[in-house]
Design brief:
Elements lengths: L6 E11 L6 E8 L4 E3 L2 E3 L6 H13 L1 E16 L2 E15 L9 E5 L1 H7 L3 H13 L12
Parallel strand pairs: 1-6
Antiparallel strand pairs: 1-2, 1-4, 2-3, 2-7, 5-6
């Protein structure tokens, strides 16, 4: 397919340290239009680079500012017959408050195993394993011993 038909998008596996001090939590967003749970992501604006787009989408969908960490695997799939490419980063939430909007009506913070179970798409579940590996974490969200 021609490069011009490629839908470019970016997003993050957004995380924070659990309030208990044990492990971490991953943010999932619910999009009423699709009735699905996913990682915050969205289409890039014309001329926008993927890193800037990922930060913007996280802020728009979750209300959170974040610090981008390691890049995660890029998801590639078809949407209405057009190829879509979504670049992802691990991103630590720094501050912010979620406000429901037309695009995202709910936000959940869950431990990695629970987040994996709640995600609608398999490709989003695969990102959790890549995220944990990138942060050198175990499946329960605790640091592996060295």
């Amino acid at each position: 397919m021609a490069e011009g038909s490629l839908v470019r998008a970016a997003g993050c596996v957004l995380w924070r340290r659990a309030a208990s001090g044990e492990g971490l939590e991953i943010a999932l967003v619910h999009r009423p239009k699709y009735d699905d749970w996913s990682h915050p992501k969205g289409k890039l604006k014309r001329g926008e680079d993927a890193r800037t787009g990922a930060l913007r989408e996280v802020l728009e969908e979750t209300g959170m500012t974040c610090d981008l960490g390691p890049e995660l695997p890029t998801a590639r799939y078809l949407v209405d017959g057009r190829p879509k490419e979504v670049r992802y980063w691990a991103a630590e939430a720094l501050a912010g408050v979620f406000v429901a909007n037309k695009e995202v009506d709910r936000l959940r913070w869950l431990p990695p195993a629970a987040a994996r179970g709640d995600l609608t798409q398999d490709r989003d579940r695969e990102l959790i394993a890549a995220f944990l590996s990138a942060l050198h974490m175990s499946g329960e969200g605790t640091r592996r011993p060295d």
